[in-house]
Predict the 3D structure of the following.
Amino acid sequence: MKKNIAVILGDGIGPEVTQQSIKVLDAVAKKFNHEFHYRYCLMGADAIDKTGSPLPDETVTICLDSDAILFGAIGHPKYDNDPTAKVRPEQGLLKLRKSLQLFANIRPITTYASLHHLSPLKAKNLEGVDFVIYRELTGGIYFGKKELSDDKLQASDDCVYSASEIERIAHLAFQHAQKRRKKLTLVDKANVLETSRLWRRIVQEVAVQYSDVAVDYMFVDNASMQIIINPKQFDVILTENMFGDIISDEASVLSGSLGLAPSASVGSAVALFEPIHGSYPQAAGKDIANPVGSILSAAMMLDHFGLTEEAQLVRDAVNWTLQHGFVTKDIDAINSYSTTTIGDLVRDYTENKI
Amino acid sequence: MKKNIAVILGDGIGPEVTQQSIKVLDAVAKKFNHEFHYRYCLMGADAIDKTGSPLPDETVTICLDSDAILFGAIGHPKYDNDPTAKVRPEQGLLKLRKSLQLFANIRPITTYASLHHLSPLKAKNLEGVDFVIYRELTGGIYFGKKELSDDKLQASDDCVYSASEIERIAHLAFQHAQKRRKKLTLVDKANVLETSRLWRRIVQEVAVQYSDVAVDYMFVDNASMQIIINPKQFDVILTENMFGDIISDEASVLSGSLGLAPSASVGSAVALFEPIHGSYPQAAGKDIANPVGSILSAAMMLDHFGLTEEAQLVRDAVNWTLQHGFVTKDIDAINSYSTTTIGDLVRDYTENKI
Ligand SMILES: [Mg+2]
Ligand SMILES: [Mg+2]
C-alpha cells in the first residue's frame, strides 16, 4: 500500500514525539511492504515564526492532497502571554479542522495493568476498561448563535443539530462498534433537551442498519458517574459536541497519564491523528516527552488505512514497552527512559528485533 | 428558637428515612431548647393515591407558610411503567420547586475515612475532600426555548442567562465560602460560550463585595477531570444548571455511597432539604434504607436556621456512627444495622447518651 502522509510537527514537544511515530511507521512500511511518503508542513507557533500565519495555505493544500495527517502539538506561551498578539497558534488548528470538515473526534480510552498505580481509580475499577468515545465536533452549542443583549445583562447560546450531522457520525460509531464488542451507548439528555431527542430518534433510525450492535441510552449526568464507577461497561460511546468535550476529558484520566492517549479527527475527506496532550513547551527539546500518545495516534491512522494487523502490532509494541517498565519520566520519575529510546524500542519490537 | 417545618415523607423509603431525621431534630430541640413544629403534607405517588394530584394545593400552602421543608423521596414504579398515566409523581416536585422559586441547589461533597474502601477512587485522592457545589436550578439550557423544525430534521435548545439570575446564586455561594475555606471556583466554558462569559463577568463583579474569598475559574471539561484527580482543591464550586447537573452527579460518587449525600434547594422564600437518593421502592418498609442522607439534609436545615452548633453536633453524631461501623447494608452487606437503629444511635449521640 502506498500512502501520502502530511506531517505537521507543530510546537513544543510536537516534533520529538512525532519523529518517534515516523520511525515506527517506517518500520511498519518495511515489514509489510508499504510505501509511506511524508510531506512536512507548518502549523501553529512554528508557522507564525516562519511565515506570519498559523496555517499557511500550502499546509491546507498539502493536507487536502494527502491520505492522512499526522500532527504533533500546538501552542507556545509567548503567544498566550501576549494580549497584543494578533495571531495565535491555536487558530491554525481550528482553521484546519474547519477546512477539512472534521466532524468526528475519536478518543480510545484504554487502561494498562502495569500503570494502574498511576490512576486515581482503584485497580479493580480499571480492569478490562477499553472503550472509544465518538464526539461530534462541528455542531451543538459551541457553534450556535451567541448573543449578548445591548444592556449586557442577558446572554444566550443556541444549541442546534440537524439530522444529517447526527447521521454521519452515527454511521462511523456503529461501524466501529461492529468491529469491537458490538455495543453502542448514546449519551444525551433526552429527558430535557430537544436536540437530545433528535439525537435519540436519528440514532434509533441508523441502528436499524446495524442490527448486530446493541444500543443503549444514558443521560449525561449518569454517564459522568458511570465513567468512574463502572467504566468497563462501555464499548463505543456516541455523543454530541459539548457532552463529548466533558466526558472525554473526564475519561482521559482513567489510564493515569494523558501522555498515553491518542485521538483521531475524521471528516468527509482526509483525517487527522494527534496525541491528546499539549505542546508542553517546558519539556521541548529535552528528549523526555512521552511519545506513546503520538505512536498510538499513528496506530489509529494505520487502522484508518485498513491496516489492522499493522496497527495491532504497533499497539502490541507499545504494550510491551509499558509492561517491561520502558517509560518516560511522566510515568516513572526514577526509572525513566528518553523519548528516543521509547521510540527505538517500539520500532525494534515492530521490526521483530525484540 | 421556634420553627415550623413542613415535612413531606413522600414515596418509597422517604417516610422511614425522614422519620429518623425527625427523631434527631427532636433530640436537638430538647438539648438546645428549641421548638420544632412539624406539619406533614403530601407529594408524589403518595399524594396521587390519596388525592389524585402529585402536589395538592394544601401542600404548597403549608410549605409557603413554613420556615423550611424536609422532604424524603419521590417516585413509584407503578407510574413509571404506565405510559397511560396522566399524572406522574415527579411532577409534584418540579411544581413545588417552581412554586417556591428554588434557584440554587446545594450539594456538599464529603468523604469518610472509614468508607474509603467503598469509593471508586484511591484513598490518597479522597483524603481531605470537602467541598460544596452551588448549582443554578431555574435557568440555562434546560429551561430555554426548544424547537423542532416542521420536517423534524432540525432541533434546537436555547441557553439563556440574565445577570440577576447569576447574581443571586453568586451571593449565596460567596457567603458560604466566607464561612468555609474562603475559596470559590466558577465552573464555566467562557472560552466558547457567551452565557459563560456573562457568568464570569457577573461573578467578578459580585466578588468585589467578598474580598476575603479567593476566586478562580475553571472550564467544565477540566473540572470533570479535576474532580477525579484532585478533588481536595475545591472549597465552593459555583456553576450553571447543566454543568452543575453533570459535575454534581460525578462528584457524588466520591464518597462511595449515594445513601450518605444530603442536599438543599434554596430560593427567595422557604428552602427545601432532601437526600440525593431516590425513593428506592424495593427497599420501602424493610427498615434497611440508609437514613444518613436525610439526617445530613436535616443538619443542612439547621445550618440554614443559623443553628451551626446544632448542625455540627448532628454531623459529629453521623461521623461517630460511620467510624464505629454502625451502617446500613448498602455500606456493609454483612455487618449491617437497621434504618431505625442508625437513627436511634445518631439521636442518642446528639443527646449525649453515647
Ligand atoms: Mg476539552
Ligand atoms: Mg442529575
